[in-house]
Amino acid sequence: MSITSFHPPARILMGPGPSDVNPRILEAMSRPTIGHLDPVFIAMMDEMKTLLQYAFQTKNELTFPVSAPGSAGMEICFVNLLEPGDKVIICQNGVFGGRMKENAERCGAIPVLVEDTWGAAVDPNKLEETLKSHPDTKVVAFVHAETSTGACSDAKTLVEIARRHGCLTIVDTVTSLGGSPVKVDEWGIDAIYSGSQKCLSCTPGLSPVSFNERAIERIRARQTKVQSWFLDLSLVMGYWGGDGKRAYHHTAPINALYGLHEALVVLQEEGLENAWERHQRNHQALRAGIEAMGLQLAVKEKERLPQLNAITIPAGVDDAAVRARLLQEYGLEIGAGLGEMAGKLWRVGLMGYGSNPRNVLIFLGALETVLHDLGASIESGVAVRAARAAW
């Protein structure tokens, strides 16, 4: 065999995730590995909980990172809060609402879908009407920031409706945490999950979660065992709970947790509100450049995510050819459309450390050049100037 060390090329990650990783986080992950029950590591775990409480804007004691990607964060919410026969209303306006449905079915629960157009926010009125038709519903689940379309739903209003009907809520904030306002306690969210690789600018592989007392009471009242041993909160919290003492549950991804700790320190230093404003400012510059070229964003202005920009592909343009040239010639990655949006839009991320003027200008200049070369009907030589004017 002649396999040698793997050295990946440098990329500018402007897809739906992962995002560019802050060099501070890469440095943190290179620090010496210590034991996952080492007193020094346990002290860092306590700091991590405090930092996550700040990021989520919550005082929930049960706040910690699951040792797996955001999909496991989703699953830990569903398997702990749902039992066989429970009815759950799932709001679907993109791919990830569909994954919620899959999780519910595997728990033996009965999912009821509230479907909205892909690329639009969840309609609160539809949720209200569905809850009236299904008064025995136990849980309402929805995606705050739908990564597949770039649409942001009104989480505060949706949670208010669910609580009024006596339901717990499960909220996906994989793409929104750190990039858009997320206020767990103020909005009354019961269970929430996110991911480390988007607006937190860490590497993939960890899923921050938080559960309030209402959710914990539901878990304590379960009549059946949680179907997943690894994700059973009553076991996991033996490791993440307590005052300094930890019961062995699994070997934590130690160096990855160093990285998340550093990512959350960076977020704390910038300040949540400042991070939200930075994402919005760079989004507006990107939008100005896109529209100056004659292209359109696919989501209505009031429902757009600043960190995930869905750009409608102009007629006659080869989606894959554009993405391939951006990657090969500029080392720049953007995302394709998913599901029914495949071939219809590009998903351009401005997340965390990657939400900066440099990335906006490089992307606009590269996209304009590639589209011009391919004979697309666009305005040339205007995008970068328009973005600068927006700032």
From TrEMBL:
Substrate binds at R347. GO terms for biological process: glycine biosynthetic process, by transamination of glyoxylate. Residues 36-337 form the Aminotransferase class V domain. Its cofactor is pyridoxal 5'-phosphate. PANTHER family: ALANINE--GLYOXYLATE AMINOTRANSFERASE, AMINOTRANSFERASE CLASS V. Keywords: Aminotransferase, Pyridoxal phosphate, Transferase. This is Alanine-glyoxylate aminotransferase apoenzyme. It is an enzyme of class 2 (transferase). The lineage of its organism: Bacteria, Pseudomonadati, Pseudomonadota, Gammaproteobacteria, Chromatiales. Belongs to the class-V pyridoxal-phosphate-dependent aminotransferase family. Its EC number is 2.6.1.44. GO terms for molecular function: alanine-glyoxylate transaminase activity; L-serine-pyruvate transaminase activity. The keyword Cytoplasm does not apply. It comes from the Bacteria. InterPro entries: Aminotrans_V_dom, Aminotrans_V_PyrdxlP_BS, PyrdxlP-dep_Trfase, PyrdxlP-dep_Trfase_major, PyrdxlP-dep_Trfase_small, SP_NH2Trfase/AEP_transaminase. The modification N6-(pyridoxal phosphate)lysine is found at K198. Pfam families: Aminotran_5 (PF00266). It comes from Nitrosococcus oceani (strain ATCC 19707 / BCRC 17464 / JCM 30415 / NCIMB 11848 / C-107).
